[in-house]
Every structure is written in structure tokens, then in C-alpha cells.
């Protein structure tokens, strides 16, 4: 993690994990081709994720696209395992332990993000009521609208305790960015290197989401990857661009870096004084009408964006869950798995059901 007042932290304390990954590993042309294809595909996704304009950091559409890319990359791991012809019975116990532990943490992160999206959508309900009141002819329209706006401000300004849990989970996940030592398994080395790329992308996406939802850049991660990875340049370029924009926005006192939420908040700030003091003339009545109209559009855009993002987060949750289920199911038919791994499977498998 990196804080403005602290030295920058990176998550490669063990040095270059790929210094010797290919030397003496006896990778076949097919295995090299599979690895290169995976990494080139990841590089392409990273390049597409770099926003064309600074204003797109962080829009809900960008967040949705980044979550979609994350789902696709996790799905690519399943394809790679099949192409490598690496059956579950050949998995090393340590790989299994790392996989089950990491995926459990990802499920926790998904739950935290879904909780935050739901909290923001509850704010939409308050604002919807306020705008409905202002469009009515009731003598209490301003009083009712003010009450609803207060509810919106309280809901949006509150803190989500699940995010604090999410930060600790991300910290622990970042500490697993090393690659287990693999002996006499070229296929395993290809898989571990691919999984490293998935973990880096996952941490980057989760880090930006956490910064957007928490209203702070303190938990942004700055990940460094070895140049030997074919996607390293694209990732570094993307990370610097996005993290710099987020930090700049918060350093200027921004309430949020979520563009759609920022637009709604700006509209509420224009509306609230009028609701407090009431309309005193035709000019103010016209101004109120325009503000309400603009705010309705901004609020609808925010709500629609949150709905679509919620679907992507839910989709990512299902990708992780189905991957775990497939692995656990395969273990039921494997006879040479150690008792220790069976215990891990049983305990962790039950925990997410």
C-alpha cells in the first residue's frame, strides 16, 4: 500500500519470482505457446482497461468493464488447466491450499462490495422520494423533501464496516503474491505463472474498487511486476494512470471518485438550500424545476450503473464459487490426496455453502 506521507510499499518482497522459472524447466513448445497466449490475452485486456479520458476514472462503466475482464481472466485459468492436461490428482498440496485460501478471500471481498453497492442503492431510494415530493403539489412538499434529502446525506455519508474487513483481506491476499516452489513439473510452473497474473489483476481491481467505495486513496496498492511477464508494461501503464487520477482527486478534497455519485452529490448541494428556504418567486421556481430535472437524470444514471455493476460483482462471485465447486467435486473422486488437503477441502468447502 502507499500513503502520501509514507514510503511506497510494493508486494514483491521476495524479489523476482520468475528469475529461474523457465531456466531448466523443460517447457515444451505447446506449454510455452499456452503461457504466451494467456499472457498476451491478459496484456490486451489491460490495454483496453486504460481509460481514454481522465474523466472515466472511476466511472461505473469502467468499474463494470474491469470486473468483466476479471471474470474473463479467471475463466481463462480453467481453459489453461484443461489445455495443460493437468488433472486435479497432479496438483501439489500447497497449490491446493493456496487456491482454496485465496478464493475464500475473494468471496469475502465480493460480499463486501455487494454490501456497499446495496448501501448506495438505498441512498437512491431516499433521493427518489425527495424528487417525488418536489414534483407534487402538497403543502408539505419542501418539508418532506428535506427529510428525504437528510436521509440521503446520512446514508451516503455513513461508513460500511464490511469495507474495513475487505481491506484486511486484501492485505493478506497481497502477501500471497509469491509463487510456490515447483520441482519437476513444467505444467505446474506454467499454471503458477498464469495464476500470478490473475492475482495481480484481481488485487488491482479490488484496490481501485475499495478506494472508490471508501472515499479514500490510503488503501490503494502499487504492485510491481517483473518485466519478464508479457503483460507487465500494459499493467504498469494502467496502474499508474488510474492510481494517479484517484490520488489527485482525493488530494483536492473530492467527496468521491465515483463520477456518477459525484454528479448526484453536486445536484443535491444545489437543491438543498432551495428546499430549506422555499421558493420565493418565479425565477426560483424555474431554477428548482431545472435542478430537479437534472438531478433526476443523474440519479437514474447512478442507479442504472449500480445495478449493472452489481450484476458483474455477482457474476465474479459465481465464477469463483463454481471454480471451487469443480475442484472440490473432483477431489471426491481422487484417491491419492493427502489427509491434510482433505481436511482443508472439507472445512473450506462447507464454509461457503
UniProtKB/TrEMBL annotation:
Highest taxon of the lineage: Eukaryota
Annotated compartments: Membrane
Topological type in the membrane: Single-pass membrane protein
Similarity field: Belongs to the ROH1 family.
Keyword line: Membrane, Transmembrane, Transmembrane helix
Name of the protein this chain belongs to: Uncharacterized protein
